[in-house]
Amino acid sequence: MLLPVSIMVLFMQRYMVALRRYSLQLLNATLVIPEIQATTRAKGISPKFKSFSYIYDEDHFIHALSSDVVIVHGLPKDLREARKKIKFPTLSPRNSATPEYYIEEVLPRLVKSKVLGIIVNGGNCLQSILPASLEEFQKLRCRVAFHALRLRPQIQALGSQIVGRLRASGRPYVAYHPGLLRDTLAFYGCAELFQDIHTELIQYRRNQMIKRGTVKEQLAVDSVSRKMAGLCPLMPEEVGLLLQAVGYPPTTIIFLAGSETFGGQRMLIPLRAMFANLVDRTSLCSQRELFDLVGPEDPRTPDLPQPPPPKSEKQLIEEWRRAGPRPRPLPPPPARPFYAHEKEGWYGWIGENDTEPDASLIEFRRQAHQLLWDALDYFVSVEADAFFPGFHNDGSGWPDYSSLVMGHRLYQTPSGITYRPDRKIIAALFEDVNDHRYHPPRNWTIAAREHLNRSANVEGVVSSAMLSRPVSFLAHPLPECSCSTSKSPAVEPVKDSNGRFLFGGEEECAGWMARSPAMASARNNEPQIEDYEDNLPEEGSSSDMQESDRSDSNKSSEQDEEMDLDD
């Protein structure tokens, strides 16, 4: 089964595999290990890790689901040839398809052709909430998402090392995902929040979405009104001011997650000025460690302008004779060549033409690498002492990165600090202090702190569930993916307006789940989270800075000098 070109974020793959696994159980079909197209089209990447195994532990996936569905590594030889000749059908399930769709439309085609390829667009090929009669299937989706889909050991090992280095000073760390993605900004019309070339690039992508029918609106929209409505991501500067309002000191360690921050390091300058210990995987890992994670690859073809081939003496003499009478004016100097570093990246093409070129082989390989970096940062974000999303719960049904991290944290460490800010409320708060946001009045600081503290508590879980659960069960995996043990504290059940449980009232956990690594990790992490919450720094505590904090800050500043602001 092939995943589409448009699916570039790793954990949409997690969402799609979980849904596809349910479909196979319902149809009584055999699953061929899924293919992630971002890796299959990237030529020259490591042959050691192919497609699905580039990110996930393939053997564990097969073993974990061996009692539920038959899984094979690949098609038989005759079917592989038929696939190359496109002799069996493929289909793309519609958004939030019902179980009846798979029974009435997919199953007859599968029975007729014996082989059926499914291409999943957007990651939402099955409705989030299944009927009560399919409760067991819903639980199996949870098992796939949180137990069968496990990152390959190399990613987990390096992720554990990063977590250890972040906690080496004895202090907790905050994971932050900006959510500044070009597609997101274009879809919601947030171009005017940027300047110059950034705006042009966002509008170009939005125009493409309008032509494809993804966006049903006009090209030009009021980005300020969109931001006030909570549709645009929070800027890193705003996140820094909110963390200050909560009481985090300037020495707080903040881990920057995600493989893409549209606008590059320039967007992070205000946040880095407030929190000097802003780090990412590149500042915590050596080049050798990252190279080992990628694996051996074929050398990339240099994209430098090649000099013209040398001419023979006979050709030079012939050209001299055909040159005409003398004296002649000197020819104009040759045009300055465009080098590789000017062509690659998010802005390279716009200086040469008005049409964005097709992705090059180097770009395909970079997109495959982004899956690895997203996977690595996902692991670190789930294990973080606190998580702050720049963009989540957009209501589109697409499983955005932050929502998946928040859902996994809710499943694995529900006592952990996970902020769920309401961007509409936050935008109104910043509108009140737009002219003096760096020196806000105390009542503004108290209001911002109270909102964020409520968002990290049960009230935030409930309000977030109202938005996310109907469109993405992985963003709020309760109560279907939860259960209780003998040591679980009593929790009062909470229901939505339709009478469905949001959490509480869970059944007793099965024996294999009580012994699972996920619950063991949760038990190990709970004391650390509680200590962190009790010792959350209050306002004005930043003066208690230790020498180790100063050294970390100096180290981070030295690394910043070498960063490319347009990276």
From TrEMBL:
Which InterPro entries did the record assign?
GDP-Fuc_O-FucTrfase
Record-level Gene Ontology MF annotations? glycosyltransferase activity
Region Disordered, as annotated, extends over 295-314, 517-567
- The answer to whether the entry has keyword Transferase is yes
Biological process according to GO: fucose metabolic process
- Compositional bias of kind Acidic residues: 528-537
Q: What keywords tag this UniProt record?
A: Carbohydrate metabolism, Fucose metabolism, Glycoprotein, Glycosyltransferase, Membrane, Signal-anchor, Transferase, Transmembrane, Transmembrane helix
Pathway(s) per entry? Glycan metabolism
User: What membrane topology is annotated for this entry?
Assistant: Single-pass type II membrane protein
Q: Which GO terms describe its cellular component?
A: membrane
Q: Which Pfam families match?
A: O-FucT (PF10250)
Protein location: Membrane
On whether Transmembrane helix is a keyword of this UniProt record, the answer is: yes
The biased composition feature labelled Basic and acidic residues covers 547-558
Per the record, the similarity remark reads: Belongs to the glycosyltransferase GT106 family.
What is the designated name of this protein?
O-fucosyltransferase family protein
